[in-house]
Structures are given as structure tokens and as C-alpha cells.
Write a sequence for this structure.
């Protein structure tokens, strides 16, 4: 049954991620007074790209070809490591948050190297900016993970989620609030959303992620877009289940998994809607202000770790 749960989770992630992007775009269009495309538009774009011809720029090497594949594969591995529907996934005792961070980093570095491999100014600019953001993100992620692992005495994702489910009062603790704020900033930066990056623009002075993938076409661009949508869904699902594991199944019964699937979809949709609403009233930061935001995330994570050592174990 654990492998059935894994299959259900991967299917939900693969099919639901483009719908999440479409829903967020639809909400933003409505709030801005525009009709916009339907929720299924990202799926149509991905399907269309899979049928398009591949165009290879001159003088590109192996990294340009394998970058999207590594980006998508590393994201798929993360999708099998995060407890979205149930805590009884295969090899769940072996997966911790450091593995998640590592595999996400592998995909980011692969895509950055692919951007550099094009030899264009846009690719190099986007890759350098992306790696700068990632270098600033890593300390924040480590601090937030450390804060969450203290109360569970483990960095295992499933152990942290179970500890929160067994002691729901810890959700309202100061350490959890600070770690939650730190991880929200991390998710926004990692997913390339406002105010760190704007996925809807192609302006030279503001692009980060989009600058790395301008030269891609065909199924390679489809894989990049699909993996980026999956990453956003996974990060929102991870936050929702680490801080509010309501409905997260602890067994692999069909009924428990069905409830877990419905509730995690509702939580991700709620977080995605809030993020889309916030982006309507938010402007992109100047690139030189992004380190200040990420530095604030690190401070929040550090405060969460510090407070965790001073609070009683029952209230961490």
C-alpha cells in the first residue's frame, strides 16, 4: 500500500501543479480587472511544447541538453520524499529535510550551468543571479530546518510532521511562528515569485529564472515549466504539512489517503490563493534589496533556533 500511496502522491503532484499555476494566474487576472486565461492554460502550454521542435543554439554543450532533465528529475525525487498525503511512504524513515534541500539545489545548479552553457548575456546574467539567491537562501533554510528539528529531536520530515500532529499546541509557539515566516520567504525566493522574481516578465533588468531558460524550446522548455510548477506545489505542501498537518494520513488506508488528498489540496490551494492575492499588491524588489530580504529570513530562522532552546519542551 505504501507504493500505491506514492503513486497517488506523484499523480497528484504532476497533474495538480500546472492547475495551481493556472489558478494563481486566474486570481491575479480577476483582481486586476482582466478576464485572463482559464485555469487549464498551463496544461495546454506544456502539452503544446511537447509537440514543438527543439532548437539548439550554436556552441552549446552537454549541460544545455541535460540541464532540464536533471532539473525535472531532481524535482520528481523530492516529490517522492515529502509527506503530502500520508506519512507511510516507501523509505520514509530515511528522508530528512536536508535531503530535500540537497535535491532542490542539484536541480537549480544544473539549470544554472545550462544557462551559462548558452554563452549568451541573458543566460549568464540569469544564472549568476540565481546562484546568488541560492547562496543566500541556504543559511535561512538550514536555520529553519534546525528550529523545526529541535522539537522533534530529528530532521526527518515525517518525524517533524508526526510530532506536530501529536502536539498541536506547538503550532502556536513563537519558535514555530518565526520558522514559518522564515520558510515563507524561502519558498517565495526558491519558487521565483514576487517580490524576489516576477515569472510573468521578460524585462532584461529584472529577470532571474526566465533569463536562464530563454534559449529552450520544445520538450525541454516543457520540462522546465512543469518542474517549476511542481516545485511551487511541493514547497507550499511542505509548509502546510509541517506547520498544520491536519488530515495527513498516518496509515495507508484508502479512506485516510482520500481525506489526506482532499485536505492537502485545499491547503495548497489556500496558500496559493493568498500568495496570488499578495502579488497583486506587491512590487518587485530591486536586485540589490533581495539580499536584505533573505538576510531577514536568516535572522528569523536564527531567532527560532534560539527561542527553541529556551522554551519548555511542551511549548516549542
Amino acid at each position: 500500500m505504501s507504493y500505491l500511496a506514492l503513486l497517488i502522491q506523484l499523480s497528484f503532484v504532476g497533474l495538480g501543479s500546472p492547475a495551481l499555476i493556472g489558478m494563481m494566474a486566474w486570481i491575479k487576472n480577476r483582481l486586476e480587472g482582466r478576464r485572463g486565461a482559464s485555469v487549464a492554460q498551463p496544461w495546454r502550454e506544456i502539452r503544446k511544447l511537447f509537440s514543438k521542435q527543439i532548437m539548439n543554439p550554436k556552441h552549446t554543450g552537454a549541460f544545455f541538453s541535460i540541464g532540464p532533465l536533471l532539473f525535472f528529475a531532481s524535482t520528481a525525487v523530492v516529490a517522492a520524499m515529502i509527506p503530502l498525503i500520508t506519512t507511510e511512504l516507501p523509505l520514509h524513515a530515511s528522508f530528512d529535510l536536508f535531503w530535500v534541500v540537497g535535491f532542490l539545489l542539484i536541480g537549480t545548479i544544473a539549470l544554472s550551468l545550462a544557462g551559462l552553457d548558452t554563452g549568451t548575456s541573458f543566460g549568464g546574467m540569469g544564472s549568476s543571479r540565481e546562484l546568488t539567491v541560492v547562496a543566500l537562501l541556504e543559511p535561512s533554510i538550514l536555520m529553519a530546518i534546525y528550529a523545526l528539528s529541535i522539537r522533534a529531536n530529528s530532521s526527518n520530515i515525517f518525524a517533524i510532521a508526526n510530532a506536530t500532529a501529536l502536539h498541536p499546541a506547538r503550532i502556536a509557539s513563537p519558535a514555530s511562528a518565526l520558522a514559518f515566516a522564515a520558510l515563507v520567504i524561502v519558498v517565495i525566493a526558491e519558487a521565483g515569485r514576487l517580490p524576489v522574481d516576477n515569472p510573468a516578465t521578460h524585462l532584461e533588468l529584472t529577470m532571474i529564472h526566465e533569463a536562464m531558460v530563454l534559449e529552450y524550446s520544445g520538450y525541454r522548455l516543457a520540462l522546465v515549466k512543469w518542474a517549476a510548477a511542481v516545485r511551487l506545489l511541493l514547497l507550499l505542501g511542505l509548509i502546510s504539512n509541517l506547520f498544520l498537518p491536519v488530515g495527513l494520513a498516518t496509515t495507508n488506508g484508502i479512506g485516510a489517503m482520500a481525506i489526506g488528498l482532499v485536505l492537502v489540496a485545499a491547503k495548497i490551494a489556500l496558500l496559493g490563493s493568498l500568495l496570488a492575492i499578495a502579488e497583486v499588491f506587491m512590487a518587485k524588489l530591486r536586485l540589490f534589496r533581495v539580499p536584505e530580504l533573505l538576510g531577514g529570513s536568516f535572522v528569523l530562522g536564527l531567532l527560532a533556533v534560539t527561542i527553541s532552546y529556551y522554551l519548555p519542551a511542551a511549548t516549542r
Observations:
- The chain has a mean pLDDT of 88.
- The first helix runs from residue 2 to 31.
- The radius of gyration is 19 Å.
